[in-house]
Amino acid sequence: MPAEVPTILATSGGIVPGRHSRWAVGPLTDYAIELSGVGSRAPRVCYVGTASGDRPEGIAEFYAAALERGLDASHLQLFTMPNVEDVRELLLGQDVIWVFGGSVAGLLAMWRLHGVDEIMREAWQAGVVLTGVSAGSICWHLGGTTDSFGPRLRPVTNGLGFLPYSNGVHYDSEPERRPLFQSLIADGTLPAGYATDDGTGVVYRGTEFAEAVREAPDKNVYWVERTSDGKAVETMLDTRTVN
User: Fold this and answer.
1) Per-residue confidence of the chain (243 residues) as pLDDT tens digits?
2) Shortest CA distance to 33 belongs to which of 79, 90, 97, 91?
3) Is 103 noted as a catalytic residue in this protein?
4) What span, in angstroms and rounded, lies between the C-alpha atoms of 194 and 165?
5) Is position 173 annotated as part of the catalytic site?
6) Of these residues, 134, 137, 148, 166, which one is catalytic?
7) Domains and CATH numbers, the chain
8) How far is the C-alpha of 6 from the C-alpha of 34, rounded, in Å?
9) Are 131 and 96 in contact (CB under 8 A)?
10) How distant is the alpha carbon of residue 103 from its chain centre?
């Protein structure tokens, strides 16, 4: 059964080192599966690696992790052409769509080119849980900080906008992320938004913040907003550990 309301779990995590594969499904992704309301059958999870150019190694690593976790796995590939005849049928048939990191600018361009942006909105509204890491987190928001254009971080402001906030990923692990995210909110380039340390995520029910969660200890989620005098203020949120 689908999630009761449209649900997104936007993360800077969701994968952990694997025992028999390069990486394994992490607690944040397990929580996305739980949010989908799937019962005793194998969860249907679709991997979307557009942001990394549908790297074959990434697809293979997903299937290895999915086998270890017992997922009913599939993937959407857009390079060099879609790997399925009906993208809508594939995505709306999932419990969870899991979007991986890379270039969020490239992801947005390819999704719009192939109409995947509107299919993702339809799937979300139908109760398919959307989750992802890094680019797969920023994409659902209005924008965020990205290295899509080169090693120097820049803003991206043309996100899908399912969620009316900005999103700051890798907030604690890349030194430029935090100050740039705050400055972009302070000068009005980005709206107020949520920032995630590595190993944390934000759950949205509909378009509203529901909770902050983590799979790694001593990691946090923050709300960053612009003050009336044009400064950015950061508030640490209560963050719950999921196992």
Assistant:
1) 688 899 999 999 999 999 888 899 999 999 999 999 998 899 999 999 999 999 999 999 999 999 999 999 999 999 999 999 999 999 999 999 999 999 999 999 999 999 999 999 999 999 999 999 999 999 999 999 999 999 999 999 999 999 999 999 999 999 999 999 999 999 999 999 999 999 999 999 999 999 999 999 999 999 999 999 999 999 999 999 999
2) 97
3) no
4) 7
5) no
6) 134
7) 7-241 (3.40.50.880)
8) 14
9) yes
10) 12
